[in-house]
What we know:
This protein is of the alpha+beta class. It contains 20 helices and 38 strands. An 8-stranded mixed beta sheet has the order 5-6-4-14-15-16-13-17. A hairpin with a 2-residue loop joins strand 15 and strand 16 (266-271). The protein starts with 6 loop residues before the first strand and ends in a 7-residue tail after the last helix. 54% of the residues are buried. It binds flavin-adenine dinucleotide (FAD). Flavin-adenine dinucleotide is lined by residues 10-16, 35-38, 42-45, 47-51, 174-175, 203-207, 211, 226, 228, 323, 325-327, 352-357.
Amino acid sequence: MKSEARVVVIGGGVVGVSTLYHLAKKGWGEDSVLLEKAELTSGSTWHAAGLLPLFNMSYSVGQVHKYSVNLYQSLEAETGQAVGLKTCGNLRLAMSQDRMDEYMQYAATAKTIGINVEFLTPAQVKELWPLCTTDGLVGAIYHPDDGYIQPADLTQALAKGARFNGATIYRHTLVTAINRTQDDHWEVVTNKGTIKCEHVVSCTGNYARQTGAMVGLDIPVVPVEHQYIVTEAHPDVIARHERGEPELPVLRQSDDSWYLREENKGFILGPYEKGAPACYVDGPSIDAEYELFEGDLERLEPHIEACMERVPAFAECGIKNVYNGAIAYTPDGNPIIGPAWDVPNFWLNEGHSFGITAAGGAGWQLAEWIVEGEPTIDMMGVDPRRFGDYATKAYLVQKNEEAYANVFVIHYPDEEREGGRPLRTAPCYDRLKSMGAVFGQKFGWERANWFATEGEEQVDHWSFRRSNWFNAIGREVRNTTENVGVLDMTAFAKCRISGSGAEAFLDYMVANKIPQKVGGIGLCHSLNTRGGVHSEFTIRRESDTSFYLVSAGALQRLDHDYLKKRMPRDGSVHFQDLTGSMGVLVVAGPKSRQLMERVSRSDFSNEGFRWLTSQDIVVGMAPNVAMRVNYVGELGWELHHPIEYQNHVFDALFAAGADLGLKPFGIRAMDSMRLEKSYRMVGTELSIEYSAYESGMDRFIHPDKGDFLGRDALLAWEQRGRSYQLAALEVHGIDDADALGNNALTINGELVGRATGGGFGFRVNKSLALCMLKPQHAQTGTRLQIEILGKMFDATVIGESPFDPENERLRDVNGVND
Ligand SMILES: Cc1cc2nc3c(=O)[nH]c(=O)nc-3n(C[C@H](O)[C@H](O)[C@H](O)COP(=O)(O)OP(=O)(O)OC[C@H]3O[C@@H](n4cnc5c(N)ncnc54)[C@H](O)[C@@H]3O)c2cc1C
């Protein structure tokens, strides 16, 4: 066995082999080794049903799946190994208007990433799938390019391609330990010897947690039992084949949580059952190969019955086999593909529940990331760092069972699942709850989305359209704009970067200038090496050598890892996570100055406390750092305090604010207001797929300040020319829904861009969206069309920040807030 390699891939399932194949295709073949403890495919891959569903609501996963299906079409020609690909199409039925809304929303995403879909009436469903009834159908969505493949053959073809490009595969080679060496390499210890390497890629399926533990990582993957049934052949299917008719498309009845496909002139039925238990919670046995569990027909019964009603022929088939295997899951059901946190050059391609479908794209993007330093598509939706320490084993059991049971539920944009809640709560949680808060969860934190008032149900009615929260949000926005509001933002990620090298380090990490005066605040962006935006930080200078950084709560691990991995290792820079120890309450609105003056002796006048500055103040008796910034475009202060003071601060504000009209507001009101200010968000308008200039961040970028991460690449990108430009849109003629993001934008039928997010702006009384448009169409006044839930609406490009474009309210010019 080799003793050295550049990269070692652990795991010979379809995902590991695809990763190896793509590394080899990128020219690293001679330097890449794959280790598999048994035979290739002996983990989960051999028993997969092989379906390749393109349907996915996530922009990242959608692109990954699309790449896979394209690759699989050419693999046989490339490698000479048949893969059993059947492009029979995929028909997803809809039994309600909400389900159709989901398909319509998805179809817009599909259009922006080039996936072919068609909508069918019940009569067209019958034509395509004569063996099914159409009772209760509203319609269906059809993917003609979808189908299935033989997973083991696919893996062998990828292995052949990898070997052909120089890569080495060692079977029957068990990895038992992974150690970091003094000279910053990895040492992968196996039962056959040790390999020293630069990079390790973990593709170990249901063993992910055991492999992670070898390097001290708690990987957020716990598998769940998943079954499918194979039936005997049916005369009607045999007759179809004899007549030379095409194979039936895969049929999915999402509303009853099952799929059905042809198999040897019979069927495979695959349900996603409620109550399917987590399994291998402490990992499978190290000797497990080709392992299956006992089938549980009782759990399958409701799905079998629903399928019999839809497809009477299915009821007439004898059951041949029940397969019950472990399927890897994460709390949101998407895989984890990308760098691990805290450890360098350790990569994860784990947690795949649709691993046959995702393997091609996942291997492709991970190989780009390893070889070229960056992926080319926005991988935020699958980044391993989207989960944090809160994702303990017990949490994973609950959330992953829930994610499995909900594979086929309608994926409402405002859906908030109940599993594993409440977990992380700010001290003011109970107070907010008693004030009517309807909570959502982000990164384990409970956050108030909106507030029900008397007579209103304190519960969300999820929808793709404006729902019961709509009026409440309008009320909260109005109160914050006319009076004063309080928003709990304790979930923000917070950290301190300090030390003699802190300023130089941060100056290199961000494109903006670092605030120079103590107390100064700057909005600063870390770019990736290609010039796209990776992270956004609000940076407060605490002293000559200390800085306080605030960023999005959901991105805590991602943002902090980005900083920590790039810190000099000579001890000149220190990192301290303050997320759990600092609470944040945002006070915003024209009467916020009056309110602050009542609870604190500091000077809150425009002269005494300037916009974009901060001061140490006392609220009631509690120490706070007040920062005069906010995300809603009103006069206001963010109050950052040691967490144990939060309720004291909260009570002081509410005791003093009643006659000023002080009311709490929630995340959804904040989001509506940020849209009216055209404030960008990381993961939507700010992404590695767009240059920082394309995202319109010009005023936060200072190429003349000296070198910074991504600077040269950004300038080179600018030289090559922009492909997109951020713009704000007003949508006309819509009164029950708003753009949700990923909406296709067209002019005379030609695709000219995509909306990144949208909503209703209550202060401007308009339906708004932010979007990325081809630059020639981004001028103010351009008329175009936007697709929202299957219908085209007129829209106009408007100037940025339709509400208070000069920031007069934030800056309080000439006392506009008095
Ligand atoms: C019943 C069922 C039906 C399914 N149907 C579909 C489907 O239709 N479509 C679809 O897309 N997906 C489907 N899946 C999911 C699919 O099977 C998985 O997502 C996919 O196989 C995952 O591949 P993998 O390479 O990540 O994992 P695996 O195939 O499990 O490979 C991991 C490999 O790592 C090896 N390994 C682990 N630890 C070590 C170590 N320490 N040293 C060396 N080697 C190690 C294991 O031996 C194993 O071979 C199904 C799953 C189940 C259970």
